[in-house]
Amino acid sequence: MLLSVLVGSGAQIFLMSGVTLCNVRHSWFLSPSSRGALSTVTIIFYISLEVRFPRFILLNFILIGAQSSAAVPFTTMLALIALWFLISTPLTIVGAYFGFKQPTIENPVKTNQIPRQVPTQPAYLNPFISAAMGGILPFGAIFIELYFIMNSIWFHQIYYVFGFLFLVFCILVITCSEVAVLMCYFHLCAEDWRWGWRSFMTAGCSGVYIFLHSAVYYFRKLHVDNTASMFLYFGWSLVMSALFVVLTGSVGYLSCLVFVRSIFASIKVD
Protein backbone atom coordinates (compact mmCIF):
# COMPACT_ATOMS: atom_id res chain seq x y z
CA MET A 1 0.00 0.00 0.00
CA LEU A 2 2.79 2.42 0.87
CA LEU A 3 4.55 1.72 -2.41
CA SER A 4 1.35 2.30 -4.39
CA VAL A 5 0.76 5.61 -2.60
CA LEU A 6 4.30 6.78 -3.33
CA VAL A 7 4.09 5.75 -6.98
CA GLY A 8 0.74 7.54 -7.35
CA SER A 9 2.15 10.70 -5.77
CA GLY A 10 5.20 10.44 -8.00
CA ALA A 11 2.95 10.27 -11.07
CA GLN A 12 1.24 13.47 -9.93
CA ILE A 13 4.56 15.24 -9.45
CA PHE A 14 5.76 13.99 -12.84
CA LEU A 15 2.68 15.38 -14.60
CA MET A 16 2.91 18.68 -12.71
CA SER A 17 6.59 19.08 -13.58
CA GLY A 18 6.08 18.28 -17.25
CA VAL A 19 3.04 20.54 -17.66
CA THR A 20 4.72 23.41 -15.80
CA LEU A 21 7.90 23.21 -17.89
CA CYS A 22 5.89 23.06 -21.10
CA ASN A 23 3.91 26.16 -20.09
CA VAL A 24 7.02 28.09 -19.12
CA ARG A 25 8.74 27.10 -22.34
CA HIS A 26 5.92 27.78 -24.80
CA SER A 27 3.41 30.16 -23.20
CA TRP A 28 3.65 33.84 -23.95
CA PHE A 29 1.83 34.88 -20.76
CA LEU A 30 4.30 33.18 -18.40
CA SER A 31 7.56 35.09 -18.36
CA PRO A 32 10.55 33.42 -16.64
CA SER A 33 11.36 36.78 -15.03
CA SER A 34 8.00 36.81 -13.25
CA ARG A 35 8.48 34.55 -10.25
CA GLY A 36 5.01 35.34 -8.95
CA ALA A 37 3.30 34.05 -12.10
CA LEU A 38 5.53 30.98 -12.15
CA SER A 39 4.79 30.19 -8.51
CA THR A 40 1.05 30.71 -9.05
CA VAL A 41 0.93 28.36 -12.02
CA THR A 42 2.99 25.75 -10.16
CA ILE A 43 0.69 25.85 -7.13
CA ILE A 44 -2.39 25.59 -9.35
CA PHE A 45 -0.99 22.51 -11.08
CA TYR A 46 -0.01 21.02 -7.72
CA ILE A 47 -3.51 21.51 -6.36
CA SER A 48 -5.19 20.36 -9.58
CA LEU A 49 -3.10 17.18 -9.59
CA GLU A 50 -3.71 16.67 -5.83
CA VAL A 51 -0.30 17.07 -4.22
CA ARG A 52 -0.43 17.85 -0.48
CA PHE A 53 1.37 20.86 1.07
CA PRO A 54 1.40 20.57 4.93
CA ARG A 55 5.18 21.10 4.93
CA PHE A 56 4.66 24.44 3.20
CA ILE A 57 2.37 25.57 6.04
CA LEU A 58 4.87 24.45 8.69
CA LEU A 59 7.77 26.30 7.06
CA ASN A 60 5.59 29.38 6.64
CA PHE A 61 5.04 29.44 10.40
CA ILE A 62 8.82 29.59 10.80
CA LEU A 63 8.90 32.60 8.47
CA ILE A 64 6.17 34.27 10.50
CA GLY A 65 8.07 33.62 13.73
CA ALA A 66 11.18 35.17 12.20
CA GLN A 67 9.09 38.21 11.08
CA SER A 68 10.23 37.70 7.51
CA SER A 69 8.67 39.60 4.61
CA ALA A 70 8.71 36.35 2.63
CA ALA A 71 6.00 34.85 4.86
CA VAL A 72 2.70 34.13 3.12
CA PRO A 73 -0.11 36.40 4.43
CA PHE A 74 -2.93 34.88 6.41
CA THR A 75 -5.52 35.61 3.71
CA THR A 76 -3.35 33.90 1.08
CA MET A 77 -3.01 30.91 3.39
CA LEU A 78 -6.81 30.76 3.68
CA ALA A 79 -7.03 30.84 -0.12
CA LEU A 80 -4.63 27.91 -0.35
CA ILE A 81 -6.65 25.97 2.22
CA ALA A 82 -9.80 26.74 0.23
CA LEU A 83 -8.11 25.42 -2.92
CA TRP A 84 -7.23 22.31 -0.96
CA PHE A 85 -10.79 21.59 0.18
CA LEU A 86 -12.69 22.82 -2.89
CA ILE A 87 -10.45 21.43 -5.64
CA SER A 88 -7.92 18.91 -4.34
CA THR A 89 -10.21 16.91 -2.07
CA PRO A 90 -13.02 16.46 -4.64
CA LEU A 91 -10.46 15.45 -7.27
CA THR A 92 -9.08 12.85 -4.85
CA ILE A 93 -12.56 11.39 -4.34
CA VAL A 94 -13.27 11.36 -8.08
CA GLY A 95 -9.90 9.76 -8.83
CA ALA A 96 -10.44 7.08 -6.17
CA TYR A 97 -13.91 6.35 -7.56
CA PHE A 98 -12.68 5.76 -11.10
CA GLY A 99 -9.56 4.00 -9.84
CA PHE A 100 -11.52 1.37 -7.91
CA LYS A 101 -13.74 0.78 -10.95
CA GLN A 102 -10.74 -0.16 -13.09
CA PRO A 103 -9.91 -3.87 -13.44
CA THR A 104 -7.06 -5.24 -11.35
CA ILE A 105 -3.70 -5.52 -13.11
CA GLU A 106 -3.09 -9.20 -13.79
CA ASN A 107 0.24 -10.92 -14.25
CA PRO A 108 1.02 -12.10 -17.80
CA VAL A 109 1.97 -15.57 -16.49
CA LYS A 110 1.01 -17.73 -13.54
CA THR A 111 3.02 -17.18 -10.37
CA ASN A 112 3.73 -19.45 -7.43
CA GLN A 113 1.71 -18.89 -4.28
CA ILE A 114 4.74 -19.71 -2.10
CA PRO A 115 7.60 -17.20 -2.45
CA ARG A 116 10.78 -18.78 -3.77
CA GLN A 117 13.83 -18.74 -1.53
CA VAL A 118 16.31 -16.09 -2.64
CA PRO A 119 19.90 -17.39 -2.89
CA THR A 120 22.88 -15.54 -1.47
CA GLN A 121 23.35 -12.33 -3.44
CA PRO A 122 26.61 -10.64 -4.52
CA ALA A 123 27.73 -7.67 -2.44
CA TYR A 124 26.90 -5.13 -5.14
CA LEU A 125 23.25 -6.29 -5.14
CA ASN A 126 22.79 -5.36 -1.51
CA PRO A 127 19.74 -3.05 -1.37
CA PHE A 128 21.69 -0.09 0.02
CA ILE A 129 24.74 -0.55 -2.19
CA SER A 130 22.69 -0.98 -5.39
CA ALA A 131 20.56 2.05 -4.49
CA ALA A 132 23.68 4.14 -3.83
CA MET A 133 25.18 3.11 -7.17
CA GLY A 134 21.97 3.63 -9.11
CA GLY A 135 21.04 6.96 -7.54
CA ILE A 136 24.27 8.72 -8.40
CA LEU A 137 23.66 8.50 -12.17
CA PRO A 138 20.36 10.49 -12.22
CA PHE A 139 21.94 12.99 -9.84
CA GLY A 140 24.91 13.37 -12.19
CA ALA A 141 22.51 14.05 -15.07
CA ILE A 142 21.09 17.14 -13.33
CA PHE A 143 24.06 18.25 -11.25
CA ILE A 144 25.03 21.27 -13.37
CA GLU A 145 21.46 22.48 -13.80
CA LEU A 146 20.82 22.02 -10.08
CA TYR A 147 23.69 24.40 -9.31
CA PHE A 148 22.14 27.18 -11.43
CA ILE A 149 18.69 26.58 -9.97
CA MET A 150 19.98 26.89 -6.41
CA ASN A 151 21.84 30.07 -7.32
CA SER A 152 18.58 31.43 -8.71
CA ILE A 153 16.66 30.53 -5.54
CA TRP A 154 19.09 31.64 -2.86
CA PHE A 155 20.94 34.50 -4.60
CA HIS A 156 17.85 36.07 -6.25
CA GLN A 157 19.07 35.53 -9.80
CA ILE A 158 16.65 35.28 -12.73
CA TYR A 159 16.49 31.86 -14.34
CA TYR A 160 15.72 31.95 -18.08
CA VAL A 161 16.87 28.66 -19.62
CA PHE A 162 13.64 26.70 -19.17
CA GLY A 163 14.04 25.09 -22.58
CA PHE A 164 17.32 23.54 -21.48
CA LEU A 165 15.72 22.63 -18.15
CA PHE A 166 13.00 20.71 -19.99
CA LEU A 167 15.71 18.84 -21.91
CA VAL A 168 17.48 18.00 -18.64
CA PHE A 169 14.16 16.81 -17.22
CA CYS A 170 13.76 14.42 -20.18
CA ILE A 171 17.33 13.18 -19.70
CA LEU A 172 16.59 12.62 -16.01
CA VAL A 173 13.52 10.49 -16.78
CA ILE A 174 15.44 8.41 -19.33
CA THR A 175 18.39 7.94 -16.96
CA CYS A 176 16.14 6.86 -14.06
CA SER A 177 14.37 4.36 -16.32
CA GLU A 178 17.56 2.85 -17.69
CA VAL A 179 19.30 2.58 -14.32
CA ALA A 180 16.26 1.02 -12.62
CA VAL A 181 15.73 -1.50 -15.44
CA LEU A 182 19.44 -2.42 -15.49
CA MET A 183 19.57 -3.09 -11.75
CA CYS A 184 16.25 -4.97 -11.95
CA TYR A 185 17.75 -7.18 -14.65
CA PHE A 186 20.75 -7.92 -12.42
CA HIS A 187 18.43 -8.86 -9.55
CA LEU A 188 16.37 -11.17 -11.72
CA CYS A 189 19.51 -12.83 -13.10
CA ALA A 190 20.57 -13.48 -9.50
CA GLU A 191 17.15 -15.13 -8.87
CA ASP A 192 15.96 -12.29 -6.64
CA TRP A 193 12.30 -11.63 -7.39
CA ARG A 194 11.94 -8.74 -4.91
CA TRP A 195 12.25 -6.00 -7.51
CA GLY A 196 9.38 -3.71 -6.45
CA TRP A 197 10.88 -1.65 -3.65
CA ARG A 198 14.38 -2.16 -5.07
CA SER A 199 13.43 -0.40 -8.31
CA PHE A 200 11.89 2.49 -6.37
CA MET A 201 14.94 2.85 -4.12
CA THR A 202 17.45 2.59 -6.96
CA ALA A 203 16.15 5.61 -8.84
CA GLY A 204 14.84 7.43 -5.77
CA CYS A 205 18.19 7.46 -4.01
CA SER A 206 19.15 10.39 -6.28
CA GLY A 207 17.09 12.57 -3.94
CA VAL A 208 19.44 11.65 -1.09
CA TYR A 209 22.36 12.93 -3.14
CA ILE A 210 20.46 16.17 -3.76
CA PHE A 211 20.05 16.70 -0.01
CA LEU A 212 23.75 15.99 0.54
CA HIS A 213 24.57 18.46 -2.23
CA SER A 214 22.33 21.03 -0.53
CA ALA A 215 24.26 20.59 2.71
CA VAL A 216 27.58 21.10 0.91
CA TYR A 217 26.13 24.13 -0.90
CA TYR A 218 25.02 25.59 2.43
CA PHE A 219 28.44 25.41 4.06
CA ARG A 220 30.42 26.45 0.98
CA LYS A 221 28.25 29.12 -0.68
CA LEU A 222 25.85 30.56 1.88
CA HIS A 223 26.69 32.68 4.89
CA VAL A 224 23.70 32.37 7.21
CA ASP A 225 23.91 33.99 10.62
CA ASN A 226 20.60 33.04 12.26
CA THR A 227 18.91 29.81 13.26
CA ALA A 228 15.56 30.50 11.55
CA SER A 229 17.22 30.89 8.14
CA MET A 230 19.14 27.66 8.67
CA PHE A 231 15.92 25.78 9.52
CA LEU A 232 14.23 27.26 6.46
CA TYR A 233 17.07 26.31 4.16
CA PHE A 234 17.32 22.72 5.31
CA GLY A 235 13.53 22.45 5.61
CA TRP A 236 12.99 23.45 1.98
CA SER A 237 15.96 21.33 0.90
CA LEU A 238 14.39 18.34 2.64
CA VAL A 239 11.05 19.02 0.91
CA MET A 240 12.75 19.31 -2.48
CA SER A 241 14.76 16.14 -1.91
CA ALA A 242 11.71 14.19 -0.71
CA LEU A 243 9.71 15.25 -3.77
CA PHE A 244 12.64 14.24 -5.96
CA VAL A 245 12.80 10.82 -4.27
CA VAL A 246 9.10 10.25 -4.95
CA LEU A 247 9.37 11.50 -8.54
CA THR A 248 12.44 9.51 -9.60
CA GLY A 249 11.44 6.45 -7.57
CA SER A 250 8.07 6.34 -9.32
CA VAL A 251 9.73 6.62 -12.73
CA GLY A 252 12.06 3.76 -11.82
CA TYR A 253 9.27 1.53 -10.51
CA LEU A 254 6.94 2.07 -13.47
CA SER A 255 9.79 1.46 -15.91
CA CYS A 256 10.64 -1.81 -14.18
CA LEU A 257 6.97 -2.79 -14.10
CA VAL A 258 6.75 -2.41 -17.88
CA PHE A 259 10.08 -4.24 -18.30
CA VAL A 260 9.15 -7.19 -16.08
CA ARG A 261 5.71 -7.59 -17.65
CA SER A 262 7.24 -7.45 -21.13
CA ILE A 263 9.88 -10.11 -20.56
CA PHE A 264 7.54 -12.48 -18.72
CA ALA A 265 4.78 -12.01 -21.29
CA SER A 266 7.19 -13.32 -23.95
CA ILE A 267 7.70 -16.62 -22.08
CA LYS A 268 6.05 -19.52 -23.87
CA VAL A 269 4.60 -22.11 -21.51
CA ASP A 270 3.40 -25.38 -23.05
UniProtKB/TrEMBL annotation:
GO terms, biological process: protein localization to membrane; vacuolar transport
Predominant subcellular localization, coarse grouping: membrane
TM segment ranges: 32-49, 61-87, 128-148, 160-188, 200-219, 231-264
InterPro entries, per the entry: EMP70
Subcellular location: Membrane
Cellular compartments per GO CC: cytoplasm; membrane
Keywords: Membrane, Signal, Transmembrane, Transmembrane helix
Lineage: superkingdom: Eukaryota
Record keyword Signal present: yes
Membrane-topology descriptor: Multi-pass membrane protein
Similarity annotation: Belongs to the nonaspanin (TM9SF) (TC 9.A.2) family.
Record-given protein name: Transmembrane 9 superfamily member
